Amino acid sequence: MLGLVDHHRVVPRVYSQLSACSHLVPAQPLDALRLRYQDNARKTLWFTGELVRIVSHLESAGIKALPYKGPVLSETLYGEVTQRQFGDLDVLILPADVAKAKAALLDLGYKPRIELASRAERAYIETAYVETGYEYSFSAAYGSNLLELQWQVVPRFYSIDFDVADFFERADEIIVGGRPMRTLCAHDLLLVLCVHAAKHVWVQLSWLCDIAQLAKSRQLDWNAIQDDAKRLGIERIVSLNLLLAHKLLGSALPPAIQKRLGEYPSTTVLADEILRVIERSVHYHTESIPYFRLMMRLRERWQDRARFLWRLAFTPSVSEWSAVRLPKRLQPLYRVVRLSRLAKRLASAG
Q1: pTM of the predicted model, to two decimals?
Q2: Distance from first CA to last CA of the chain, Å, rounded?
Q3: Correct CATH for 1-184 of 3.40.50, 1.10.287, 3.30.460, 1.10.10
Q4: If we measure between CA atoms, which residue out of 245, 246, 233, 162 comes closest to residue 205?
Q5: What value does the mean pLDDT take over residues 57-74?
């Protein structure tokens, strides 16, 4: 059980439940769970202090920052930063601020995991023909991959084109670590969390716990959520998340989602398949043919599936930009590099 708790990153939730009936739980495993809870609390408090430092420094440099997971999500959903498990920080910025934000983070001792030449970096962030990149991962003396600086929510090939500028326009304010910060409004947060869980095939229960908690919010307009999900082509993804939360956690299904599920029973069939993935409690191989097939099945519109395949094959990632350096006039050839490298990875993955 302790192994499952660790895998699904639900230590705070399980500990709070079991400690309330400690007379029924053997002392040794409860002590082991308590140590995990205390260790997580220390980590989350450190990350909270670090987030305050990062956001303060970015804003002092004139960079708008929108943290939306980690301590901010903990505070938003549970009112306490120690009540979730997380191992990094996620901060959204505008594409125009990427270079300036990188320089600001260097001042704080953070270094990007992959370095690109300045010309390649500009192309990676935004080129004349496609927007290719979506994030930089940063490490520091305290550990690797501690911070993800993002200007999109998911890689372009997923074909879910959130407007990050709109996120900033609709953002809410919350107090975290004694400091006011802006974060995603409840409406945008629900859609983003649903997409994030689907991207990782729901292998951690903690993501569904967050969605179930957020779904209780009275701020949510479910008809507006359905409209936005339809526009983005993620109605099935949103419905699946809420159905899985209902089946596993007993959360209520909003009427708009019940209606959607009644119209498309195939979503329920897909949910039963996902339940078996969650039950196995193993990480899904995200560079395999079965994974890409599943990602297509999660989309309700054929044009989104077609765009997914096209972008998957031809949208260069940071790996392509860093592996091969091409002059500006030959940068469209990164698509060929991408296709070749992807074919090799899929062949080796089986």
Answers
A1: 0.89
A2: 32
A3: 3.30.460
A4: 245
A5: 96
